[in-house]
Design a protein that fits this description.
The protein is α/β, with parallel strands linked by helices. The protein is 34% helix and 10% strand.
Length: 354
Amino acid sequence: KMQMAASGAGSVAGIVYNAITGIETALWDVSAKAAGVPLYQMMGGKFRSKVRMYADCHAGEGLESLDCLMRSRTAAWEPRAASAQPANYFEESSDKILFTPEMYCRRARQMAAAGFTALKFDVDVPNPYARDLYNRCLSGQEIDYMLSLIAGAREGAGPEVDLAIDCHWRFSLKDARILAKECETFRLMWLEDPLPPWAGKEFRELRLSSSTPIATGENLYLFEGFRPLLEEQCLSVVSPDLQKVGGLNEARRIAEYADSFTVPVAPHNISSPIGTLAAVHFCASIPNFLALEFHASEVPFWNDLVEEAPGPLIVDGHIIVPEGPGLGVEFNPDAARKYARPGEPFFADGGARG
């Protein structure tokens, strides 16, 4: 019914599915609470009692706050001076080096020391070596610069920590091939989104050109969005975003189909503790789970968004699968209201809470 009702806004992809997915996830929580069991039990049981998290380290710095157009901004809770401007990861170009291998090394060492056994870094950052901002082509110097950033991250992480690299759909097939081949020496966990999400056949060519594992999925919707990529063996890792793919049940269809091709699942996740714990139950319930993204290591109130948590949700790079009914936690609206952006409407204002 929600799909049909949203047909005018486009009901096969897009923000419609953020809403549908949120509602579907809430209904899973309600159903499991009514049955008096943890959510993973409604999904058939669990394969693991704790879920491995990978820390998204961005470009060697914490990325605390973005506006609706993905522009960096100073977060209200940051202690830095109000006049200070954060580095913009999404600028089109830069005439100087903003991000260095040393930054990547330092951040990797910090997060490994915090207990994470898997990290991810961005390499599509503003730099002075880009020759054209729109043709997806990389200069040789730009590729060398990206490789130096990866080398810095690998040095800081050490050989025991898995390392993934994100490219945010920026490159052409010809240059993605070069980058993937050059990355073989780093033994990456995966190279994520080097091509735009609609480039299905190109993903297959890329995967076959190198031993570097290739991942995509955060901008695909529904089982139908993933089916051709899996059937054509285009991917080494599949990464659905569990907050917009169409619901946890849709994600299970994707995971089961991926498992039939021996492809592991590493969900994209930039959500609050509520969305993250829904993902934790999902990840516990599928056999072919690899790692779940954690995107908020620099957000000081992230744990406060759930009530009565005994401590940090992530300990030594893992989340223990909750055993309480439903998600096993309750949302804390007071914390959400406290940290909402000034002037931003709050969903409970003017109506019933919950």
